């Protein structure tokens, strides 16, 4: 009888339960309910077309505005990193709640920034204008910022788990 090394001759049956469960959109709760959930994070993934449909409307399928998917993903990452780096003290929830919408060739960035007492209004307007202009030149398309200021992260909270 010829035996090959590394191949087992006996068959085995696995009796453990399946560990490949769906984890998308599920957040682990904490003991003292300190983890912040925003409204967008609290929605289940199967509600994305119903309750979060305004986030799925885009113009990438139209003939004149079609861009390749890797370009769009790279642009989104550039925008997110720039906003996180340009407003480091003001970004709420580590910049995860930035929404990037594309309407035609215009790229609209919406989200929340935390208000700090040190910032004066002139500096804020200058930073907004600079960020819009820099991103427009970098991405070669118009970019609009729709960022709202909140006092604390608690103002953005929908629920705590």
Question: Could you please describe the fold and organization of this structure?
Answer:
This protein has 161 residues and is an alpha+beta fold. It has a domain of 97 residues: Cation efflux protein, cytoplasmic domain (Alpha-Beta Plaits), CATH 3.30.70.1350. It is 25% helix and 16% strand. A three-stranded mixed β-sheet has the order 2-3-4, with helices on one face. α2 runs antiparallel to α3. It is found in: Mitochondrion. InterPro entries: Ribosomal_uS3m (IPR026146).
Main sheet characteristics? 3 strands, mixed
CATH architecture of the domain at 60-156: 2-Layer Sandwich
Helix/strand/pairing class, anyone? Answer: alpha+beta
The end-to-end distance, rounded to whole angstroms, is 62 Å
Low-confidence stretches: none
The first-level CATH class name of the domain at 60-156: Alpha Beta
Number of strands: 5
Main sheet: which strands, in order across?
2-3-4
What CATH calls the topology of the domain at 60-156 is Alpha-Beta Plaits
CA radius of gyration is 23 Å
Tally of contiguous helical segments: 3
- Mass-distribution shape: extended
* Beta-strand content: 15-25%
Order of helices and strands: EHHEEHEE
Give the full name of the CATH homologous superfamily of the domain at 60-156: Cation efflux protein, cytoplasmic domain
Helix content: 25-40%
Average pLDDT confidence is 80
Keywords: Mitochondrion, Ribonucleoprotein, Ribosomal protein, Transit peptide
Pfam family, one: MRP-S24
Subcellular location: Mitochondrion
Family: Belongs to the universal ribosomal protein uS3 family.
